[in-house]
Amino acid sequence: EVQLVESGGGLVKPGGSLRLSCAASGFTFSSYNMNWVRQAPGKGLEWVSSITTSSNYIYYADSVKGRFSISRDNAKNSVYLQMNSLRAEDTAVYYCARGLVDDPIDFWGQGTLVTVSS
Amino acid sequence: AIQLTQSPSSLSASVGDRVTITCRASQGISSALAWYQQKPGKAPKLLIYDVSTLESGVPSRFSGSGSGTDFTLTISSLQPEDFATYYCQQFNSYPYTFGQGTKLEIK
Fold first, then answer.
1. Of the candidates B107, B1, B45, B13, which has an alpha carbon nearest to the alpha carbon of residue A97?
2. For chain B, what is the mean pLDDT?
3. Residue A68 confidence (pLDDT)
4. B41 to chain A nearest CA, in Å?
5. Is B44 close to A108, i.e. CB distance below 8 A?
6. Distance CA A69, CA A21 (A)
7. Is A117 helix (H, G, I), strand (E, B) or coil?
8. Which of A22, A69, A73, A113 has the most CB atoms within 10 Å of its CB?
9. Nearest Cβ partner of A50 from B38, B55, B94?
10. CA atoms within a 13 Å half-sphere pointing along the CA-CB vector of B6
11. What is the pLDDT of residues A13-72, one digit of tens each?
12. How far apart are CA B89 and CA A105, in angstroms?
């Protein structure tokens, strides 16, 4: 059974940092690009970042570029999102999601809530 | 960045109705268009990819069509479990983008 389990969310003050983790199981992790997508409360989906299978290519939304950093460890079947200089507008549920190269996101985790508030 | 505009933003319909949701891209995206369904408190679920290919396990009442910049998702006969929010997404180029969503509600 394919599983993506996010962790690391919580309450953080503006300007603070958090590191999200996503543990994958049930599929060949190293064959998939991995993504982070977020959804602010009551709002739509916003793609945040993607990392290719061997970490050769990394992409970020303009809204997080320079503040967030994605990485992966294929030996641990895990992907991470380091979030620095957090702002109130970063408050959202963060989903970890997989996709094959040149294919859409085909499976999502259940998400972890990040709240940025003083 | 490629912008995706969905219409309508919300839609009221009855069980058995046929409904169509439109997604327009700001530039051509070839066939790199997917549709997702999201229910409250749940993660999105892939319904259709490559404009018209049904994901495994998705009922055949869902269909997708279009080309270039204009795409549609059609539900041929609404079932109670179809009331949800639907999003289109382009995966032609980074940054990936989503439409703003269409909330399908029971009339």
1. B45
2. 96
3. 98
4. 9
5. yes
6. 12
7. coil
8. A22
9. B94
10. 27
11. 999 999 999 999 999 999 999 999 999 999 999 999 999 999 999 999 999 999 999 999
12. 9
Residue at B1: amino acid letter:
A
For residue A113, count other CB atoms closer than 10 A to its CB: 14
Identify whether the C-beta of residue A23 lies closer than 8 Å to the C-beta of residue A2.
no
Q: Is A1 on the interface with B (CB under 8 A)?
A: no
* SS3 of residue B90 by DSSP: strand
The amino acid occupying position B64 is G
Q: Which two tokens stand for residue A68?
A: 């967030």
Identify the pLDDT of residue A90: 98
pLDDT (tens digit per residue) in A69-117: 999 999 999 999 999 999 999 999 999 999 987 889 999 999 999 999 9
Shortest alpha-carbon distance between residue A45 and chain B (Å): 6
CA distance B11 to B67: 23
Q: Is residue B32 within 8 Å of residue B42, measured between CB atoms?
A: no
